[in-house]
Design goal:
The structure is a single chain. The protein is about 25% helix and about 30% strand. The termini are far apart. α5 (about 195-205) packs parallel to α7 (about 245-255). The strands form 3 sheets. It has a 7-stranded mixed sheet with strand order 1-2-3-5-6-8-7, with helices on one face. By secondary structure, it is of the alpha+beta class. The protein folds into 2 domains: about 5-165, 3-Layer(aba) Sandwich (Aminopeptidase); about 170-255, 3-Layer(aba) Sandwich (Glutaredoxin). The longest helix is centred in the middle third of the chain and has 15 residues, at about 100-110.
């Protein structure tokens, strides 16, 4: 691990290192918007720590924030909340224990800040870490949300009240009963990609698309999708719980039309 350094990303240096695979702010609007988002939330306790290899460059990151500002539909005040955890753009950096190092950074920050513990939402598949690494660290599953989201927590005092998903997530879908709606937040840079192409495809299907930009944590916590920072909703039903390609969107709509 001598080759690895953990760098604290700040509004001043994030453009130098990039984030989530985006490195050129002049080229990528996703990175420019993420930089703006970091600037807005850094004073609220946001931390992004990047895993930098001298040989391989940027190879991982963890992002977390005090639970009251979490961009997931959760009640997690008093806990540090992990938004993202990723390691290994290159295969040789996977399975080396680097994810554990990043989680430990968050746990240590939570302890030094007198927080009640650390919370995270996981699911199988794209865009979120699997629960296995957290369970091995002593996290416990304390809540679930459709279709397969889990809320995990590591508490420093077993008597502390568990965090939980916001109540009545399904009930909030009633706000999006008509037509196609895309909810997105610049917390996740990938919510920008492919949206324009999806809107154009929707036009070709004679569907008018409503885009809702989730401007702050309160808006993200009102998302009926447990992913928090993205959802595609069609006639009151979530048809994608995370960012997808235009091709995937077209395939989904094709199946719905049959």
């Amino acid at each position: 691990m001598d080759d690895i350094e953990i760098i604290n990303l700040t509004p001043q240096n994030i453009e130098k290192y990039g984030v989530c695979g985006y490195k050129d702010a002049n080229k990528h609007v996703e990175l420019r918007k993420k930089i703006e988002w970091v600037g807005e939330h850094y004073s609220k306790g946001l931390k992004i720590k990047a895993l930098i290899s001298q040989k391989g460059g940027y190879q991982g990151m963890i992002e977390y924030i005090p639970g009251e500002y979490a961009h997931r539909p959760v009640d997690a005040k008093g806990f540090l909340f992990i938004h993202c955890l990723f390691v290994g753009f290159k295969k040789e950096f996977k399975g080396k224990g680097y994810a554990n190092l990043l989680i430990d950074e968050c746990i240590n920050d939570a302890k030094s800040s007198n927080m009640s513990g650390v919370a995270v939402v996981t699911r199988k598949g794209s865009f979120m870490a699997d629960n296995k690494i957290f369970l091995k660290k002593g996290f416990q599953i304390v809540d679930n949300a459709k279709p397969d989201f889990e809320l995990l927590v590591l508490k420093f005092d077993k008597n502390t009240k568990n965090p939980g998903f916001k109540q009545n997530l399904d009930g909030k879908l009633a706000e999006y009963n008509n037509g196609l709606t895309i909810l997105r937040s610049t917390q996740c840079p990938y919510t920008e990609k492919n949206v324009n192409a999806i809107v154009e495809s929707a036009k070709n299907m004679n569907l008018e698309t409503r885009i809702v930009d989730l401007m702050d944590s309160q808006a993200a916590q009102s998302n009926p999708c447990a992913f928090g920072t993205f959802a595609i909703i069609y006639n009151g039903k979530i048809i994608s719980h995370h960012p997808i390609s235009n091709t995937r969107f077209e395939n989904i709509m094709s199946k719905l039309s049959k």
